């Protein structure tokens, strides 16, 4: 009943706003619409061999319709409709809704993340949000999930008032399969923001967000997943000063119940009326902060993020808590040439992540360092050097030795360019050495995993021809105890416009040789091409075709196993804009 | 007179002894770190309360969690604890929900703070002691039974490379993309399986939306190791750096420049029976925070 009322109110508001603006008679429509077909084929030999599994849907059709109806200056009605003909969910609660599996209900279809239907009518500073929305309020409150529902975003002067409520997950029954459906409880969410903002100057906002599962919404219920409830309150403060200085802060507190079937308790403080504590409720804090200066040729910033061990929000379901990150970032342009262009660009960051602030698991530290240093010595020569380090260490616990994994990557990429009156040539070489050390927690022995990668690329550019070819050779060698893998790739691409540049053709041929230890080589040939046909200014037809033939040597059984994989993607797209007529 | 008194005391004491209930407890040496999770797993704790020797009376369970030096970390609030009636003949079997009712366990000091924030105790060795007390005088109705256990939460892998938002050279990525992640901490006694999945983010899709709606291009189980070299075999064509390009696979920056194909990857950590390692935590699927990377 309430839902019907809400819909009626929304429709009334839209119609009144539209009527108010029709007098202006400045109506226009712009946007895109399209349909794309994706086909996939896989032939495996010998018959019955299943060593390689399909990795795309056999057939898929996607529709998109994204018009924006503009009524006068102040009122717009943008639609965002993206639909897929077949469900293709493999991760999360919708997994199992694949062709051949059980059919989804209408509610499940409309909230399935593979589809989205939304309309956001906007009048001056007020916007209604209807349908599936992916709204990001802040880094800590909500931002990763799509919710099907209704809400608004009001921005009178410097004020910001936002609200949205709906369903992020319908009830999905557990199904033993095949295919297995993990199932899910129905989850309703709401979010609210109030604050003030002057773009480029400051932003202060309070965020509140809640998600709650309904215990009886699926039958049979999921086996491993528990009904949850979470509430979060956060305060965001961003200030932008003169000369590029900025300060960004957010503090948040979450109250999250991991299992709504556990008994309620008075021993853990509730956040009523928003959430009542159960024995599985945790309440913890999180904070982010960054300070720095952004300039045209010099950036410097210090950022930190703390997530308490019990910090959890329904708006970021994959967030990993219990950590403290701090990073120092810089970007620097220097060494001017005669034309006052900078020849050198340095991007670097150094930071540390400390896991287990709560001490509920073993302590672990991770060092993160990156450096990318580019230098243009002269018109011909340039050099790029990059270095990455990731180190991870933790205490031993019940094992004799602690975990210690260290990854070091060092790369050099010199490039030489030369030209004459007809063409320009670019020859680029890059070499990367990667060393990854892992300590065994039982023996204390460290195993090294070394990788060498070398790539040579030649790209000629003709001044008088439309051809754009490229050639490359790559060598990859990975050495771990008991496994030495060598990959060699030769590839070449060619692009050209035809039919007065209405048709853009591009093709690529790639041959890979794979060798594992003393086994016979695997051979792989990939051919792909794309055809982009601009039928008119508004209408285009794009096609992409790819075929991949892989033949194993004798590293796996049956000897000589092979597969042929084909991909076809073709689609029409129409861009429209009545203003341009 | 003295003899009579001694006899009377001996008689009363023997009656009291007859009312002592035999108890036994089976506790996993490494139960789940989240104490609420104990009740969901039948293999974690079993408490056997013996017969009452024909007598009828109620008892309450006095449960204490102690560190190995005997410091009490948390104990039952007997006033609000639920009474049980031992069977006159026959045993009663109780589970974690009865023995460790968290709504009646009062934790102290830093342990209280840890429980309120995380639902877990700090990683350490602990002892669980349970004794039956008669209602209403709280006289001991059994000997205390104690079992040691080790608590530590599993920390799921953190994705290392490709780093979040990293751009990979298409000429290298078309041959091999190396994935690395941190191992589960602490190292599990049985090998864990890292379920590595890579999804392409299609046009008009958000990162997590792609993960939840697309078929993975790579779907691989890796036992024990924390590195995988993927040969994508995707034929990654270079994209045209053109504002009006209509190729449907492109991800554009706000200025119209093409950023390349976009992928999202994650690790799901499974135990030796193929189930999520940390079902009580986070999203319930034991999936690590996903990262995106570009190929251009």
**CATH fold-level label of the largest domain in chain B:** Immunoglobulin-like
Largest interface: A-B, 127 and 90 residues
User: Are there runs of chain A of 5+ residues with pLDDT below 50, and where?
Assistant: none
Measure the end-to-end span of chain A: 45 Å
If classified by CATH, what would the architecture of the largest domain in chain B be?
Sandwich
Largest sheet of chain B: 6 strands, mixed
Helix fraction of chain A, binned, reads under 10%
Class inferred from helices and paired strands of chain A = mainly beta
Radius of gyration of chain B: 29 Å
Q: What fraction strand of chain A?
A: over 45%
| Uncertain spans of chain B | 11-15, 238-257
Q: In sequence order, what are the helices and strands of chain A, one letter per element? A: HEEEHEEEEEEEEEEEEEEEEEEEEEEEE
- The run of helices and strands of chain B is HEEEEEHEHEEEEHEEHEEEEE
Would you summarize the structure shown here?
Chain A has about 575 residues and is mainly beta. In chain A, about 5% of the residues lie in helices and about 60% in strands. In chain A, strand 7 (about 145-155) and strand 8 (about 160-170) form a beta hairpin.
Q: Your description of this structure?
A:
The complex is a heterodimer of chains A (581) and B (296). Chain A is mostly beta strands. Among the domains of chain A are: 25-71 and 481-581, no CATH class; 335-346 and 356-465. Chain A is 5% helix and 59% strand. In chain A, a hairpin with a 5-residue loop joins strand 24 (503-516) and strand 25 (522-534). The radius of gyration of chain A is 28 Å and the shape is globular. Chain B is α+β, with helices and mostly antiparallel strands and 296 residues long. Chain B folds into 2 domains: 16-151, Immunoglobulin-like; 159-295, Immunoglobulin-like, CATH 2.60.40.10. In chain B, a hairpin with a 5-residue loop joins strand 15 (251-252) and strand 16 (258-270). The longest helix of chain B has 18 residues, at 2-19. Chain B is elongated and about 105 Å long. Classes of the chains: A mainly beta (581), B alpha+beta (296). The interface between A and B is large, with 127 and 90 residues.
